[in-house]
Amino acid sequence: MSAAIDSDKYEVVIGLEVHAQLLTESKLFCGDSAAFGGAPNTHISPITLGHPGTLPKLNRKAVEYAIRLGLACGSRIERENYFARKNYFYPDLPKGYQISQHTAPICDGGIVAIPVAGGQRDIQLNRIHLEEDAGKSMHDQDPSFTMVDYNRAGVPLVEIVTEPALHSSDEVYSFLTTLRRLVRWLDVCDGNMEEGSMRCDANISIRLKGETKLGTKVEVKNLNSIRNVKRAVEGEIKRQISIVEEGGTILQETRSFDAGNGTSFSLRSKEEANDYRYFPEPDLAPFHLTEDYLDQLLKALPELPEAMVERYVSQYGLPDYDARVLCDDKATADYYEQVVAVIPKHKAVANWLLGPVKSTLNEQGAAISDFALSPAALAGLIQLVEDGKVSFSIASSRIFPELLLNTTEKPLDIATRLNLLQDNNAGSIAPIIDEVLAKYPDKVAEFRKGKKGLMALFVGEVMKLSKGKADPKLTNQLLAEKLK
C-alpha cells in the first residue's frame, strides 16, 4: 500500500504556537536594550542576569503592542491582568524561571483569516499572551563548553496560540505568512524568522477521518523560516502515518527539525502544564486596563490589510491580484496612497508600482522605504504619460532611470532635455506611416482581408522609426484611416 493511499485515510490536525518579539526599545521588565545583535552579553544588567535583590518593572509599550495585535485579531482584551512564574529550566534564562501569563492571557480568542484554495478560512486563536524571551545557548564557540549570550533574555514576546484548527502544511504556510504580514503592518514585530524575532512551534497529530477525538500530538521546534515550518509539518505527518500503518504507537514528545536533511529527532517527552508549577509572580503587581485606554488603542489602529484590499477593489476598481500585492506590506500600500493622492489614476499607479518600481527594488535588493523617488516625483512621471506627452515605454525605459539618478529634476525637464516628448503632429507622423505601409505591402493586403491583428505590427514599426516619439493614439488613428 503506497504512502499516498495511506494518507487519504487520515485527517491531520495542527495547532501552532508562534512567538513574536515585540519592537520595543527596552526589555519587558527592565531598561536593557532589546535591539537585535550586539556583542554577546552587552545588553544586560543585574536585572537581566537575575541577581538577588533585583526587581522587575513592566514595560508599558509591550502591553500596548500586545493589545494592538489582539484588537486586530478580534480578541477579547482581558481588563484585569497579572503575570505568573513558569518554573521551567532554561539554561539561558538566569533566574531559573520565566515570567509569563497563564490563566489570564491579555488577549483571549480571536481569529486570523487566511487565504485558502477557493476562498478564505478563519483560523481560531486560543490566546495571545505576554512573556519574556530566553537567552541563546551557543554550542559552536568553544570545543568543550556551551557559551550563553543573555542579550535576548528578557526581550518582550507575545505568544500567539491557535486552536487545533489547521489541517495541512499549506494552511500552516498561509497562516504564518498572513500573521507575519499583520505584525509588520501593525509595527509590533519585524517578523524576521531568520533573526529569531518570530519563531514557530507546531503541534501535529493525525486521526482517522470521521473521528472526533484528537490523536497524540507531537511538538516540532527549532523552525526558523516559514518554508521550514512547512517542510517540518509535511515530514512529521509522513512519520506519524508510517508509525500507525506499521502498527506502532505515536509518543507525545518534543522533536527538533534539522533543516539540512529535512528530518526531525526527539528532544524530550512532552511536559504537561502542571510540570511548570505556575504561580502568580510575587514581584509584579497586577495591572488594570481602562476602557478609555483600550478605546484610544482601537481608534489608533491602522486600516487592516484585508479591509484595504476590499477598498482597493470596490472603490479604486483594481483587480484583486493588484490589490493584494500592493497590500502585502504597509509601506508599499502607504506609498501607493500617497501617489494616488496626487494623481488619482488608480490602475495606472498600480501598474507603475507593480512594474518598473518593483523591478527596480528587486534589482537593488531594497524595500519601498529605501526607494529614491518621492511619491510626488513618481506621480509627476505618471502624469506625463496620462497627458500624452510621452509613452509608457519611453517613460519607463528612458525617463524613469534618469529620474532615479537625478531625483530633484522634474520628469518634464528630463523628457525635454533628452528630446523624448511625444510627437502629436499628424503632419510629421503621416510620412512615417507611409514609409511603413510601403515597406509591408503584403501585410497591408492581409490586413485589408481581415487580419486586423497586424495593426500592432504597423504601430510598432512607426514607433521604432520615430524613436518612440510618435503619439500612439494619433498613430493608431492615422493608420486606421490610411488602411481603409
Automatic annotation (TrEMBL):
Recorded catalytic activity of this chain's protein: L-aspartyl-tRNA(Asn) + L-glutamine + ATP + H2O = L-asparaginyl-tRNA(Asn) + L-glutamate + ADP + phosphate + 2 H(+); L-glutamyl-tRNA(Gln) + L-glutamine + ATP + H2O = L-glutaminyl-tRNA(Gln) + L-glutamate + ADP + phosphate + H(+)
Domain of life assignment: Bacteria
EC number of the protein: 6.3.5.-
One GO term of the biological process aspect: glutaminyl-tRNAGln biosynthesis via transamidation
NCBIfam families: gatB, PRK05477.1-2, PRK05477.1-4
Name of this protein: Aspartyl/glutamyl-tRNA(Asn/Gln) amidotransferase subunit B
InterPro entries, alphabetized: Asn/Gln-tRNA_amidoTrfase_suB/E (IPR017959), Asn/Gln-tRNA_Trfase_suB/E_cat (IPR006075), Asn/Gln_amidotransferase (IPR018027), Asn/Gln_tRNA_amidoTrase-B-like (IPR003789), GatB (IPR004413), GatB_C_1 (IPR042114), GatB_Yqey_C_2 (IPR023168), Gln-tRNA_amidoTrfase_suB_CS (IPR017958)
Family classification: Belongs to the GatB/GatE family. GatB subfamily.
Key words of the record: ATP-binding, Ligase, Nucleotide-binding, Protein biosynthesis
Enzyme class (EC, first level): ligase
UniProt domain Asn/Gln amidotransferase: residue ranges: 334-483
Function: Allows the formation of correctly charged Asn-tRNA(Asn) or Gln-tRNA(Gln) through the transamidation of misacylated Asp-tRNA(Asn) or Glu-tRNA(Gln) in organisms which lack either or both of asparaginyl-tRNA or glutaminyl-tRNA synthetases. The reaction takes place in the presence of glutamine and ATP through an activated phospho-Asp-tRNA(Asn) or phospho-Glu-tRNA(Gln).
A GO MF term: glutaminyl-tRNA synthase (glutamine-hydrolyzing) activity
Record bears the keyword Transmembrane helix: no
UniProt entry tagged with the keyword Protein biosynthesis: yes
Gene3D superfamilies named in the record: 1.10.10.410, GatB domain, N-terminal subdomain
Quaternary state and interactors: Heterotrimer of A, B and C subunits.
